[in-house]
């Protein structure tokens, strides 16, 4: 294939009627209420990076720790007063079980990335998937061995990039927060609810609170 | 590691990839060694580098490349402890399934020791030499220093890959020196440091002549130079009366896993260097049946001029030893098939099924045999 043909093809693909590009939360077909038991809040993954000169992103220890505290407090408040029964995650003491749990978290990260790509990116929509229709598979059931035998898992991830003040800012790079949250059925592994948001920050308790509220808005009751 | 961020690819490599012309930035200020219980303050870049490494470690812990063999793990950890002394409780070592000569150290105390490295070391002292080198990186806070050096260069618009590489080579030399001291102080035979690197030199993959590495961009000093430096240290080193070599132990610990590690190496298709490695191991003289079998596998898989004939010779030699794997007969049969020697193929494949009646590929081989017996 010549370079020109490839260019034409690439342009043609870019101009195709874009697939679904969502903003905000979405539910899988038929999901109205969560009636199958408590919601297990998995350990949230909170990262704050500094975009440093030379194009490096350094995961900042101090910022990350304080963002973690802010987000944890915000989650407690947002989820505490709601209609959901929240169960706290407790890591199993047996190393083999720990490993299984870690594998579920890894699979979840992959599925989450795929959902963000295919449902929240204009040019990457999947024509045969008009709805939220993703699953981690029944292997997630290992998370149900918690004392409360929860029915659902809530996964929360927030990453913030702050531009170093030493950064020679030519390309208009700005601070940015990206977040994703999902509710997964812990029997089937199906993703029942999902949200992906951009913008905001975790620099203060108030900022973290509004980021969490925005990410978790419209949770099924 | 790359992070996708709003369509912009942000490189978060600690070894930056910025090209330019060279003006050496010079050595950084002298940095104190890491203390055994030291925890960097959250405010420092060092804490951030540790946190980054913690994340990598979380990934590694549950990765399939970690070898889950408690006996091997205990052995490697015991050598680490012997070398690391008071730092032992802080160092977490993972045996990882990696070909070639590989070991790595993260600033937070996560150490990786590759299976290919275990295969290439002839005794405990040689393993201790490499582990000492990695601990040298850790004690001298090399990741932190490299990060600071890079940031300083960028601030001064001097991030040229040539001198970044020179900085890295200086760190490698320093780690060699620190590692050597640790090894000797722990009672190991200093001459084994020289032997270890001689073995690396003998088994290094050689790039083709037209792809020779650019010395100015190399992150590590040439192996020959390292051998010479270590020889100088070894000549000067004062040793105890009976320095530890630890050959029997090392061989005994590796023996149960050597087969699959060799199999990994052969499948890497770096035939020249794997052949050199197998030759070295044959000279060491332990488990010759298995080694001649893998020599044969190298020749069978490479299949260059004369290789199939050599493979048959290797397999025959392997079968003279009681530890020749059952697969020797299978490979012998497969080579015979390729050279058109049907009687020899039939005999070898039948022997394979006799020796390994539960083999996974038994039905495939049985079908092959039926075809050979047919018209």
Textual characterization of the structure:
The complex is a heterodimer of chains A (221) and B (375). Chain A is an alpha/beta fold and 221 residues long. Chain A is built from four helices and eight strands. Chain A has helices at 3-15, 61-80, 95-120, 205-215, and strands at residues 26-27, 39-41, 45-52, 56-59, 86-88, 152-163, 176-185, 191-198. In chain A, strands 1, 2, 3, 4, 5, 6, 7 and 8 form an eight-stranded mixed β-sheet that branches. The model of chain A has no long low-confidence stretch (mean pLDDT 87). Chain B is mainly alpha-helical and 375 residues long. Chain B is built from 15 helices and five strands. Residues 1-28 of chain B have low confidence and may be disordered. At the A-B interface, strand 3, strand 4, helix 2 and helix 3 of A face strand 2, helix 1 and helix 5 of B.
Name the features:
A: 221 residues; 4 helices; 32% helix; B: 375 residues; mainly alpha; two-stranded antiparallel ribbon; 5 strands; elongated
A few lines on this structure:
Chain A is of the alpha/beta class. Chain A has four helices and eight strands, in the order αββββαβαβββα. In chain A, a hairpin with a 3-residue loop joins β3 and β4.
SS content category of chain A = alpha/beta
Distance between the termini of chain A: 53 Å
Give the C-alpha Rg of chain B: 24 Å
Shape of chain B: elongated
**Secondary structure tally, helices of chain A:** 4
What order do the helices and strands come in, and which of them pair?
The complex is a heterodimer of chains A (221) and B (375).
Chain A: H1 3-15, E1 26-27, E2 39-41, E3 45-52, E4 56-59, H2 61-80, E5 86-88, H3 95-120, E6 152-163, E7 176-185, E8 191-198, H4 205-215
Parallel strand pairs in A: 2-5, 2-6, 3-6
Antiparallel strand pairs in A: 1-8, 3-4, 6-7, 7-8
Chain B: E1 2-5, E2 8-11, H1 45-61, H2 70-84, E3 92-96, E4 103-105, E5 110-114, H3 115-120, H4 124-139, H5 142-155, H6 161-185, H7 191-203, H8 223-236, H9 247-267, H10 271-284, H11 288-302, H12 307-318, H13 327-339, H14 342-355, H15 362-373
Helix pairs in contact in B: 2-4, 4-6, 4-7, 5-6, 7-8, 9-11, 10-11, 11-12, 11-13, 12-13, 13-14, 14-15
């Amino acid at each position: 294939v010549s370079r020109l043909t490839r260019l034409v093809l690439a342009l043609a693909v870019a101009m195709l009627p874009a697939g679904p590009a969502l903003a905000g939360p979405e539910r899988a077909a038929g999901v109205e209420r969560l009636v199958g038991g408590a919601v297990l809040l998995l350990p949230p993954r909170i990262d704050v990076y500094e975009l440093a000169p030379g194009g490096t992103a350094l995961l900042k220890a101090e910022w990350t720790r304080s963002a973690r505290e802010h987000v944890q407090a915000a989650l407690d408040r947002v989820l505490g007063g709601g209609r959901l029964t929240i169960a706290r995650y407790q890591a199993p003491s047996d190393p083999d079980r720990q490993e299984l749990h870690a594998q579920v978290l890894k699979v979840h990260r992959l599925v989450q990335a795929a959902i963000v790509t295919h449902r929240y990116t204009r040019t990457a929509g999947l024509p045969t998937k008009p709805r939220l229709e993703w699953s981690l598979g029944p292997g997630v059931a290992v998370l149900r061995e918690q004392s409360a035998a929860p029915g659902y898992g809530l996964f929360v991830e927030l990453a913030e990039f702050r531009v170093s003040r030493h950064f020679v800012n030519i390309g208009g790079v700005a601070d940015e927060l990206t977040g994703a949250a999902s509710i997964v059925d812990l029997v089937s592994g199906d993703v029942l609810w999902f949200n992906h948001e951009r913008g905001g920050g975790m620099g203060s308790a108030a900022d973290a609170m509004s980021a969490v509220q925005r990410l978790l808005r419209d949770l099924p009751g | 590691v790359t992070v996708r961020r709003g369509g912009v690819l942000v490189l978060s490599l600690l070894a930056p990839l910025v090209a330019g012309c060279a003006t050496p930035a010079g050595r950084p200020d002298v940095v104190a060694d890491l203390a055994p219980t030291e925890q960097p303050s959250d405010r420092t870049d060092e804490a951030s580098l540790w946190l980054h490494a913690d994340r990598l470690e979380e990934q590694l812990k549950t990765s399939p490349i970690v070898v889950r063999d408690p006996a091997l793990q205990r052995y490697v950890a015991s050598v680490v402890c012997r070398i690391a002394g008071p730092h032992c409780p802080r160092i977490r070592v993972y045996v990882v399934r990696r070909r070639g000569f590989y070991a790595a150290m993260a600033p937070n105390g996560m150490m990786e020791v590759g299976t290919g490295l275990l295969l290439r070391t002839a005794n405990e002292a040689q393993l201790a030499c490499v582990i000492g080198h990695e601990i040298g990186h850790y004690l001298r806070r090399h990741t932190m220093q490299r990060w600071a050096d890079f940031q300083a260069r960028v601030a001064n618009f001097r991030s040229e890959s040539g001198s970044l590489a020179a900085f890295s080579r200086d760190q490698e030399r320093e780690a060699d020196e620190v590692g050597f001291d640790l090894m000797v102080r722990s009672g190991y035979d200093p001459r084994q440091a020289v032997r270890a690197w001689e073995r690396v030199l003998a088994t290094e993959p050689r790039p083709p002549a037209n792809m020779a590495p650019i010395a100015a961009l190399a992150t590590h000093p040439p192996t020959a130079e390292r051998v010479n430096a270590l020889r100088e240290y070894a000549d000067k080193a004062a040793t105890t009366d009976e320095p530890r070599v630890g050959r029997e132990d090392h061989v005994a610990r590796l023996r149960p896993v050597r087969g699959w590690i060799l199999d990994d190496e052969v499948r890497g298709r770096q035939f020249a260097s794997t052949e050199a490695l197998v030759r070295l191991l044959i000279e060491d003289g332990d488990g010759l049946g298995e080694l001649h079998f893998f020599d044969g596998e190298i020749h069978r898989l490479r299949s260059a001029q004369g290789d199939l004939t050599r493979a048959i010779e290797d397999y025959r030699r392997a079968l003279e030893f009681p530890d020749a794997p059952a697969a020797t007969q299978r490979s012998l049969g497969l080579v015979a098939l390729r050279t058109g020697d049907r009687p020899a193929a039939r005999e070898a494949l039948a022997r394979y099924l006799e020796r390994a009646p539960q083999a996974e590929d038994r039905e495939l081989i049985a079908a092959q045999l039926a075809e050979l017996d047919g018209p």
